[in-house]
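Field reference: sequence -> structure
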Amino acid sequence: MPKENPTQKQQPAIPRPSSSVLLVSSKNELLLLHRVKTSSSFASAHVFPGGNLSVQDGPCPPPEDVSRHEDSPSYRRAAIRELFEESGILLAKNRHSSKMIAVDEPTREAGRRLIHQNKSTFDEWLKQQDAHAEPDIDQLIPFTRWVTPTNVPKRYTTQMYLYFLPLPTNVDKKLLAELPAEGERDELESPTSDGGIEVTEAQFLPASEWIQRAQKAEIILFPPQFLLLHLVSGFLDKEPRAGAPLVELEKRRQQLVEFVHTGSPSWAHKCISPKMIQMTRDGRSVLGLSEPGPELKGTDRRGESERVVLVRFKKGSAREVAVGWKADVMQEEREKSNL
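Structure field:
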């Protein structure tokens, strides 16, 4: 049996294609799921709904093809499917009328069980609800891609998306309750766990509140989730948070979408593979966000060069996470080292 060469470098794992969706409610709150302790990734953390691409989502380019790391219908279908499987929220429309499809909770829960038990695919179940149903993939807005660093055993190439649920209409709430469900109402905003298969809790809260909970160590947010919530909060959580008129809620959404399409590259196209560039004097890692990962080396794909994420990794968890301007953080660390 040939001896293993100790100098031989182990090849990093091939990143598995996955999708996640930042779902924004009619109150401009964000949906996060609490992962079970036994989860193979982000155990016990709060995450955006999402998961690995499946054969049923459509073809995905092979690992050696750089287009594997680009937005595509397969990534979008996976985002909508995983959102349904993990939270019970259905984002689907009739392809002819473009009306959102509303399905009552008992039917949705029964459908999730069938899908989890591999007794039905998402598309098969969807067609049973409406023969002309299709996932509402056109409303997904790309919002960064993340490629897991090479030092992690399980790696992913994850396409993140924004999706805005409809804002409430200016009519009496009592009247709304009496109208037939069209999918623009409660059916879209009643997340539930998947019975503990992957998720123990599903909840909408303002992005700023999720961040505050993480800063108080009440929940775990890993760097990708923390950074994106930080960015979203800067637009959706402007004061006044409560009681803001509809026109203001819509304005904040538009400003966020405009931001997503700014930058060089834009936040819609940034590809980020976090890399530790320094340790702070208090023992936190400073993660650079500018590189896209080895799979995209030599391409024009790039990440975010101006910001960094600070984090203390401890026993597979992420604590004391913060976002800072790279120049400021590096300058502050230089000044501390000179004291």
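Note: Helices lie at 73-87, 105-116, 122-129, 173-178, 207-215, 223-236, 246-260, 326-338.
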